[in-house]
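Dear Dr. H.,

I hope your travels went smoothly. While you were away I took the liberty of generating a structure for the chain from your last submission, since the lab meeting agenda had it listed for discussion. I wanted you to have the full record in hand beforehand rather than looking at slides cold. The sequence, exactly as received, is reproduced here:
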Amino acid sequence: VQLVESGGGLVQPGDSLTLSCKASGFTFSNRYISWHRQAPGKERERVAGITRTTGITTYLDTVEGRFTISRDNNQNTAYLQMNDLRDDVTAVYYCNACEYWGQGTQVTVTS
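The corresponding predicted structure, in token form, is as follows:
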């Protein structure tokens, strides 16, 4: 079982970034998918989630309207599009599929 995140990097305020989460080793379409983040010195928090097939999404209040979670069950991949990035976005972003976690990808916003 693997969840591999990619797409993180160093960006400036106002930039956009799209994270990807490629899954393998399990039936991706059977799992609720969520993105979480952990900033330095803080607890991990859930940023967004998406249901298995209907694609119903939920978001953390502070990112709603700026972040969009999506999934492609044919490609076993989930995405997190992040727009209008702000300093408080800096964190390691993790993909989650129930009991499975990815290794994380770092997003750093700096001016």
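Two observations you may find useful: The chain has no helices and eleven strands. The mean pLDDT is 96.

With kind regards,
E. W.
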